[in-house]
Design goal:
This protein is an all-alpha fold. It has 22 helices and no strands. Helices cover 72% and strands 0% of the residues.
Length: 435
């Protein structure tokens, strides 16, 4: 192993360990440690400045997208747009156990449109928990379905998870590219999840006497309350604005994604909250939520820049190519994808995307596999939803689910997630998305 490779692997291991143990901030790991590594391989300050500049150029568009897209959906959440969609659905369905489990998926998917994992659990579980108890549905099903729905809806061009993946690609509007590429598999997995949810509900219906059980829909709707920021009269204009933004992202990829959301945010603010003081107050609230995720995404470019332009990445790839048999090389990314559920117990989201994926992408490119293919294949790291290290919001989900133990949630969810993980990779491979 060359000295460059040794320093490169040491840097990634140190970053991973520090983030897993939560000893320092993500921003520290993405700035100080790569600079120290660059100094260790003999780079001077001028060279390091070049590495940083080139690396940041790979991530600045993604950071700008987060700067406008996440506040946009936070604003729409405040207007009540997602709540009104949920109310519309609830008014038009007759609740029973199979319908209830399917509703869990639908409501969770709608709630995840704003990109917030926490909001899915905070809205969906308290809303549906009384019904789960009423129909004797196993409450373990609810956080499981919510978690998979969150993973599914991560494939939107503004979601932090897909933005992390997009930051690893050099093409323009990489988030929209990944969204379109993964959309067929997203639709297939959503259909599979809905069928499985209904099956779980039917099994419950057979095992529990629910005859005569009735639900007061008005009581359920009463649990979704308006606030002073709600804008029920502007629901249709807000929905139209959101649809226009999404269509623009898909059809006009030559327009920078962040600019589309910037315009949407400005129009949405003026339409819903014309008072400038209120706009300023809301903007402060929304942008507070971006710390430290957006700076971390931006500064992840430092790690990528140092690894790539110092020669570390090439040296690391050569080391792996010397160790891994040639026959296995072209399929390494697929093997890692198939085992991503248990592997995520060893990673955080940041270390998965910024430590593991770049190395695998560079390695696979030596065997003719494009980086876009590798990034798309490794995008859906299912195991994040069983790891409280990668996704600490899981603690909230278990606590809301009638005080469920974390171990109970993991034991119930882990095997099902891994099966879905394998289905996702196998389906994407057969469709040609992952090859």
């Amino acid at each position: 192993m060359s000295y460059l490779a040794l320093v490169g692997f040491a840097m990634m291991i140190i970053i991973t360990v520090l983030l897993l143990k939560k000893k320092v901030s993500t921003i520290f790991c993405f700035t100080v440690i790569p600079v120290v590594a660059a100094l260790l391989v003999g780079a001077n300050l001028a060279q390091i400045g070049g590495y940083v500049s080139k690396g940041i150029l790979k991530t600045y568009e993604i950071a700008l997208l987060m700067l406008f897209s996440l506040p946009y959906f936070s604003m729409q959440s405040d207007t009540g747009m997602f709540d009104y969609i949920v109310k519309f659905i609830l008014k038009r369905v007759k609740v029973a156990a199979p319908v209830l489990t399917a509703l869990t998926v639908i409501i969770a998917c709608v709630c995840e449109l704003d990109g917030s994992v926490l909001s899915v659990y905070l809205i969906t579980i308290p809303l549906l928990l009384p019904l789960y108890k009423k129909f004797h549905v196993d409450t373990r099903i609810m956080p499981f379905l919510c978690s998979v729905s969150i993973l599914l809806m991560c494939n939107t061009p503004w979601n932090p998870r897909i933005l992390r993946s997009a930051s690893l690609l050099t093409r323009n509007n990489a988030a929209s590219y990944l969204f379109v590429k993964l959309l067929p598999m997203q639709g297939i997995l959503l259909a599979i999840l809905l069928v499985y949810a209904i099956y779980l509900g039917i099994r419950t219906k057979k095992n529990a006497a629910e005859a005569g059980e009735k639900v007061d829909v008005n009581e359920l709707l009463g649990m979704i309350k308006d606030t002073e920021l709600s804008r029920p009269k502007l629901f249709v204009p807000n929905l139209i604005l959101t649809v226009i933004i999404i269509i623009t992202l898909m059809l006009f990829q030559q327009i920078p994604n962040y600019f589309v959301f910037a315009i949407g945010l400005v129009i949405g603010m003026m339409m819903n909250y014309p008072n400038l003081k209120q706009q300023d107050k809301l903007a402060q609230k929304y942008y507070a939520k971006l710390w430290p995720v957006t700076p971390a995404v931006l500064l992840s470019g430092v790690v990528v820049g140092v690894m790539q332009y110092s020669g570390m990445l090439d040296a690391m790839v050569k080391t792996l190519m010397a160790v891994i048999p040639t026959a296995v090389g072209p399929y390494v990314y697929l093997i890692i994808a198939l085992f991503s559920t248990p592997l995520m117990l060893l990673f955080t989201n940041d270390t998965w995307y910024y430590a593991l994926v770049p190395i695998v992408a560079a390695f696979s490119s030596k065997y003719g596999v494009a980086p876009e293919i590798v990034v798309a294949t490794l995008f859906m790291n299912f195991g994040a939803m069983i790891s409280p290290v990668a996704q600490p919001q899981i603690y909230v989900a278990t606590e809301l689910s009638d005080g469920m133990d974390l171990s109970t949630y993991v034991k119930y969810t882990f095997p099902k997630l891994w099966v879905l993980n394998v289905v996702w990779v196998a389906g994407g491979f057969l469709l040609g998305t992952f090859r």
